[in-house]
Amino acid sequence: MEASVISREVAIAVIVRQNCVLVGERPPHASFAGYAEFPGGKVEPGETPDVAAVRETEEESGLKVRVMRILDTAESPTPRGTLRLWFFLCELQDPDQHPAPPWHWVPRPLLAELKFPPANAPLLRFLTQGECLITGTR
User: What share of the chain is helix, strand, coil (3-state, %, to 5)?
Assistant: First the structure.
């Protein structure tokens, strides 16, 4: 079997607060338009995926976060090549921060009712059925 050639790396922040997860909606011009998403985006040249997750979260939602640990990686084929997705568990630097629209907090059990891109499926099973491994959050 031939190994996938990675065309782009994408860093994704999974931010858990009070048993809720930060979720937004993909814009009309994006692939999977209208689907639910976690904050994140392209890893820039010379940037590590964890740093990209922090940067993208602040750019998209206005929230300052820190990475706690990696949750998972996945590969997703696209017409332009294979994406490597990096999912990081993050926490808010200030628990009283509020996200900019369209970002909002969704209770973990309700994540299963939202339509996410297929590459998110294993992570969603963990978030909706597994134990939340972050403590001390509000």
Answer: 20, 40, 40
CA-based radius of gyration for the chain:
14
In the three-class reduction of DSSP (H, G, I as helix; E, B as strand; rest coil), residue 4 is classed as coil
> Does an H or E element contain 15, and which?
strand 6-17
Residue 135 in tokens: 């403590």
- Strand, coil or helix: 71: strand
Q: What is the DSSP string of 84-108?
A: EEEEEEEEESSTT--PPTT-EEEEG
Per-residue pLDDT tens, the chain, 138 aa: give them.
455 687 899 999 999 999 999 999 998 988 889 999 999 999 999 999 999 999 999 999 999 999 999 999 998 888 888 899 999 999 999 999 999 999 999 999 999 999 999 888 888 988 887 655 443 333
